[in-house]
């Protein structure tokens, strides 16, 4: 291989990696925005806007329960929309490494794995609050670990599968509590 070809490779590969990083960053921002728009729609009681982030074949899976399709869940969401309002302090944020950086209230996304036109999002969904634990002020979180699968569609990124991996999990300062 000539030195010119080696130089071309040394220039092209980093540019390709930077382009891939930029694509992943754009996808992450678009997915976070979609989550936030859904939370905002729930606050307004707008079921249509809240479900816009989900595909028509969306499925919800909760550990220990049977999977539920959008067709099963949609009438329940519409009926119960008034009671589905998230707490006022809930937002969507990108906060990787919750064990070191702590937990927040709302949807705390800590990992997005992009693979072409699909993405797997790992997040915490729950509330954090200060609490006295063992005589010291600590941050206590209660909620669920979630794995969501997203696909890129002509309408943008949409969630295809929602998996609650834990239910009513409790963490103190970002670390699981033994039961």
Fraction of residues in β-strands: 35-45%
Structural class: alpha+beta
Question: Which descriptor suits the 3D outline?
Answer: globular
Name of the CATH architecture: Roll
Estimate percent helicity: 25-40%
Low-confidence stretches: none
Tell me about the largest β-sheet.
9 strands, mixed
CATH fold group? Nuclear Transport Factor 2, Chain: A
Total helical segments:
4
Give the number of DSSP strands: 9
Radius of gyration: 20 Å
Work out the count of structural domains: 1
Q: Could you state the order of secondary-structure elements as H and E?
A: HHEEHEHEEEEEE
Mean pLDDT: 88
End-to-end distance, in Å? Answer: 61 Å
List keywords for this structure.
179 residues, alpha+beta, Nuclear Transport Factor 2, Chain: A, nine-stranded mixed beta sheet, 4 helices, 9 strands
Topology, pairings included?
Layout: H1 3-44, H2 47-50, E1 54-62, E2 68-69, H3 70-80, E3 91-94, H4 98-101, E4 106-115, E5 118-133, E6 136-153, E7 156-164, E8 169-172, E9 175-176
Parallel strand pairs: 1-7, 3-4
Antiparallel strand pairs: 1-2, 4-5, 5-6, 6-7, 6-8, 8-9
Overview of the molecule:
The chain has 179 residues and is α+β, with helices and mostly antiparallel strands. It has one domain (3-176): Nuclear Transport Factor 2, Chain: A, CATH 3.10.450.50. The protein contains 4 helices and 9 strands, in the order ααββαβαββββββ. It has helices at 3-44, 47-50, 70-80, 98-101, and strands at 54-62, 68-69, 91-94, 106-115, 118-133, 136-153, 156-164, 169-172, 175-176. Strands 1, 2, 3, 4, 5, 6, 7, 8 and 9 form a 9-stranded mixed sheet that branches. A hairpin with a 5-residue loop joins strand 1 (54-62) and strand 2 (68-69). It is globular. The model has no long low-confidence stretch (mean pLDDT 88).
């Amino acid at each position: 291989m000539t030195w010119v070809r080696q130089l071309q490779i040394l220039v092209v590969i980093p540019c390709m990696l930077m382009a891939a990083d930029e694509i992943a960053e754009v996808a992450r921002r678009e997915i976070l925005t979609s989550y936030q728009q859904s939370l905002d729609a729930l606050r307004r009681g707008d079921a249509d806007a809240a479900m816009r982030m989900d595909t028509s074949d969306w499925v919800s899976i909760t550990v220990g329960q049977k999977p539920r399709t959008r067709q099963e869940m949609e009438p329940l969401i519409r009926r119960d929309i008034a009671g589905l309002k998230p707490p006022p302090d809930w937002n969507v944020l990108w906060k990787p490494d919750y064990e070191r950086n702590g937990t927040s209230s709302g949807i705390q996304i800590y990992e997005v794995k992009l693979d072409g036109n699909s993405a797997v999002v790992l997040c915490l969904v729950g509330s954090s609050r200060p609490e006295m634990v063992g005589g010291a002020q600590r941050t206590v979180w209660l909620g669920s670990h979630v794995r969501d699968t997203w696909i890129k569609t002509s309408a943008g990124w949409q969630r295809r599968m929602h998996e609650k991996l834990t239910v009513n999990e409790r963490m103190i300062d970002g670390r699981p509590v033994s039961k």
